[in-house]
Design goal:
- The complex is a heterodimer.
- By secondary structure, chain A is mainly alpha-helical.
- Chain A has one domain.
- In chain A, strands 1-2 form a two-stranded antiparallel sheet.
- Chain A is built from 20 helices and two strands.
- In chain A, helix 3 packs parallel to helix 12, helix 3 packs antiparallel against helix 19 and helix 11 packs across helix 15.
- Chain B is an all-alpha fold.
- Chain B has one domain.
- Chain B is about 65% helix and about 0% strand.
- Chain B has seven helices and no strands.
- Classes of the chains: A mainly alpha, B mainly alpha.
Amino acid sequence: MTLLPFVLVTSVGAAIALLARRNEWLAMAGSIVCLVAAVVTALAIRPGEIVMVGGSGLATTEYLRLFLVLGAVAGLLLVVVGEAVGSRRDAPAVTLGVLATSALALSLPDPRLAVLAATAGGGFGALVTLVPTGGRSASTVGIRVLRATVVSGTMAIAATAWIGRDLSDLVAQPVVFGLAYLAFAIAVAIRFGAIPAHTWAARLTDTVPESALPLVTAWAPAAFAIVALAWADASIAPLGADIDLGSVRIVVLAIATASIVLASVAAFIQDDIEHVVGYAIIGDAGVVLLAVAALDPEAWAPARTWILVFVMARSAFAAWAAATRATFSTGRVAELRGWAIRSPALAVILGVVIVASIGLPGLAAFDARGAIVGLAIDGPLGTLVLLGTLSPLAYYGRLLVVGVARPAAGEGTRVAWRPVVSPLDLTDVRRWLRRTWSENLTITATAGAAVLAILALAVSSGAFGTSKAAAGLPPTLEVSTESFAPGAPEGPGASDAPSAAPVEGESAAPVEGEPSASLAP
Amino acid sequence: MNPILALVAVAVIGGAVVVVAARDARTVSVALALTLVASPLLADPLAMPLGLAARLVGAILATYLLWMVVRQNRTLGLLPSPTSGSRIGWPAEILVAAAAAVVGFAAHGLGAAAGGPPLASAAGFAVATLAVVPVATGRDVIRVGTALVLLLDAALLVRCALGGTPGDLEQLVAAGMLVVVAGAAAALAANARADGSGGFAFVDPAVSRLRREPDAHPLDRG
């Protein structure tokens, strides 16, 4: 099976990087080699494959492949940016660990198993707080990250177990389904650090560099959220006509809306750009929560499209923040006056990030976000929330206003943007490489941010088959009909959500090992 | 009721009581090993050998990672680093666990037919109840970290009680998850212990804090 090399490379790479962490050079080199191998093995994944283990198994999908390819590329670029501008020693190992667990979470058809893998991914995320000196406060932040991960994982395990069986003789079905749904939705909110469960994420933002932040607060929770979406769509959404989940949905909608609006407010008033990045991630995660609250098969494809856009755009924003901090030796917004004038390359990158994250009408991201809001909230309130999703323009605008302001006296010089490469010294290539690297740190970071921004814009516009992959089936142990290979009979329809009505000729039988929610007396 | 399963349930709950009540971090590790090793045995029918082996190896590896962190060796400068233990004492913890076990046993299936034994439900509820307080109020990394592992183990027990004995792949993934979480807790604990003389505490008590003056208009100064 083509997924196994990816899981092997990332999991073994993570273990090696953690075991060799005392030898920083060895750990870094090994991690980068494994990340490059992860990109290659992710590209080699073939959708529609199945591996049976006991009564359960793993299955690959086009969406899994795209998520892992983008994750491996973004992880590699973030590691390079982090290495250039200063990051955590364990960030590469954490990247590999998150990729390995995400691969398992997205390939396990049974949500009861998938939540275990997604929870393990959060466990890796806590390691990013480790520092060689002054470790006590970092450990305190790390254990809070672990606490958020485990509490949300426990809620998800309980929710999937509770209704992951025959419930035909259950006496209090609406209560059970409502509580299980609420537990999993709140678990997703906790994993993303959504408001009001954002304290751990805020402390994490104080502790880790920008380049490491998206791993813990975006990529790892994204896999968890995708599992939640598949579970809700297969187990809860089909019962929408039979049971009233209105009051429960209001709670989830309130958390989502509060996260979208208040995170933008918080990002607007922050003094440091790493806090702006941290709250920007929380705000975009609010849209994911809206998708969880929608409970509509039509939200399946937009939600999964938005998740890909979200993780890529926020990775690019974090890389931009890291490059900006390194270029100007400060992350305080007030001290960055004139940054866009002094470094036009960074200004262009931020512009691309803005377009990728906010989107333009016609782009996949813009349409997906609009569809999610429309399906989650009706009427004028929906319009208000849709306007709220544009609130990131406020903090982007503030950054741009500061960027075009007149620089402080004596700081008006332009930042060099061309690489500095001295003539190759064949007698001592290692020294030449080291010198070239150290002389181009900020340019390397800027280039990494630029590549990430372009990738984010491509995903936002629907390139790489994002929309088709997002509309595809979740992993299934039945023979998958999903294929976008040339000559394949037919791609998926508008929505292949688990709860979508089966088309003629297709079996509607439940997948082996998946919960069969039924209200039949 | 199967008496062997009852003994296993007592072992699981007893280990969890020691984990949350003991102050010696090494004792906590050994008790955690007992709970994690006994938990996968609390199933009817027993798990298949491959899955069971995965859980047992995972339990031993998870606790060994914590054991490496809490070991004492004065020649290496690893001084005894106690954890804060229970604030209400082990007898009270036993009563709390017993009450929760009764609730779990009575609520087995949570309103519908369940696939696993009621004793797993009882043990799961008891372990979860014991873990909640240290997770929420713990002030040192080992106490919170071991409680987090207990919380996950409780969730797995309840899952087994509701859905029946997990398959091989689920046992393998569960073992991996426990190892990752315990390993992360161990790494964080080691990082805290290496910083100053405060052991695993969130705040080093040896670091003096600035005395904060009264906010406004102290009465003794007129």
